[in-house]
Amino acid sequence: MQARDRLIVGLDIPTVSEAEKMVATLGDTVSFYKIGYQLAFAGGLEFARDLAKDGKQIFLDMKLLDIDNTVAKAVENIAKMGMTMLTLHAYPKAMRAAVEAAKGSDLCLLGVTVLTSMDAADMIEAGYAQTPGELVARRAEQARAAGMGGIVCSAEESAAVRAIVGADMAVVTPGIRPTGSDAGDQKRVVTPFDALKSGSSHLVVARPIVQAADPKAAAQAILAAMQAAL
């Protein structure tokens, strides 16, 4: 894969009309988009279908977690939408149900380990005894055992995760920030170059691109940094 195949631009944008303008602005520079809660609940699911029909790859960031049957039925329908990737929380029962439901489709299921907005203090507050790195490693092992397509983790943990999951699973990392940019509410952030060097296969970048004065130029700069790492 080239850098363009590895960059996922997060359309963390309030409306479909604004998202359409962003996609038009980025043009052929970007081929892969993430659609999460904000846009999904503003008509973004139909927009995701339309983008997929237009040849774009779509990472549907729904972070599913529910009883097995509910997860399975959701995955069955999402697989019919033409999505490329789908996230669910990396709980073993949910992952096993999702993998079974996705059989025969091209949908890549990703297990979300520990959110990049969480640090060790947040983990303690949430009732976990493990550090972020320890829980990420455990979830990665469980995702591999369940037959998942990949893992979502901070690039700080991507090298350790890559050692656990091997060469074939995707390691998708949000919390990517170009050198010198504001981390915002992210606590475990890494540059695009360092993320790929650490073993990440795909990088999710939202605010540094969609909130830039020149989004296309921002995307091109990130792609250049990524290509240098490949």
Description of the molecule:
This protein is α/β, with parallel strands linked by helices and 230 residues long. The chain has 11 helices and 8 strands. The termini are close together.
What's the β-strand tally?
8
Let me know the average pLDDT. Answer: 92
Based on helices, strands and strand pairing, what is the structural class?
Answer: alpha/beta
Percent strand: 15-25%
Shape: globular
**Terminal CA distance:** 9 Å
Contiguous low-pLDDT stretches (5 residues minimum) are: none
Provide the gyration radius in Å.
Answer: 17 Å
User: How many distinct helices?
Assistant: 11
Helix content: 40-55%
Strand order of the largest sheet: 1-2-3-4-5-6-7-8
For the sheet with most strands, the description reads: 8 strands, parallel, barrel
Task: Return the string of H and E elements.
Answer: HEHEHEHEHEHHEHEHEHH
What structural keywords apply?
230 residues; alpha/beta; eight-stranded parallel barrel; 11 helices; 48% helix; globular
Gist of the model:
The chain has helices at residues 3-6, 16-26, 37-53, 68-79, 92-102, 120-125, 132-146, 158-165, 192-198, 207-210, 215-229; strands at 7-10, 32-35, 57-64, 85-89, 108-112, 150-152, 170-173, 202-205. With 230 residues, the chain is an alpha/beta fold. Strands 1-2-3-4-5-6-7-8 form an eight-stranded parallel barrel, surrounded by seven helices.
